[in-house]
């Protein structure tokens, strides 16, 4: 049996410079979503002044990529969240509650010294995820 690997992309999420990484790689029905930040599609501007606003941007990107892979955000089963200030984790959780319903994904929260800086602001949050496409019973909108 051959399991196919394919890149899933969304026009709403800027792809990285060729040769760097892939935002979403789907192997069979499992989608691996690279660490997303609140960097806008111009690859320079950071969207959001705090962890809540940046997390909302990131969860929207994860939703867009899960849908591009044929599923929904509720197919995300595992996330790793990197934050610069763990004391602001409640702002990330607040944003997460606006995107997920039912059972929330398994999650690891890690405080890091710093993340990338943009021209307009510091990146405060980065989130990566694994989605099992179809496990929520929801499908991407046609």
Descriptive report:
This protein is α+β, with helices and mostly antiparallel strands and 142 residues long. The chain has a single domain, classed as 2-Layer Sandwich (60s Ribosomal Protein L30, Chain: A), CATH 3.30.1330.40. The protein contains two helices and six strands, in the order βββαβαββ. The protein has helices at 51-68, 89-97, and strands spanning 5-7, 24-27, 30-36, 76-83, 106-111, 125-132. Strands 1-2-3-6-4-5 form a six-stranded mixed beta sheet, covered by helices on one side. The longest helix has 18 residues, at 51-68. The chain is globular, with a radius of gyration of 15 Å. 33% of the residues are buried.
What does the secondary structure layout of this molecule look like, with pairings?
Layout: E1 5-7, E2 24-27, E3 30-36, H1 51-68, E4 76-83, H2 89-97, E5 106-111, E6 125-132
Parallel strand pairs: 4-5
Antiparallel strand pairs: 1-2, 2-3, 3-6, 4-6
Major beta sheet summary: 6 strands, mixed
How far apart are the first and last residues' alpha carbons, in Å? 29 Å
Q: Count up the domains.
A: 1
DSSP helix fraction:
10-25%
CATH homologous superfamily label = RutC-like
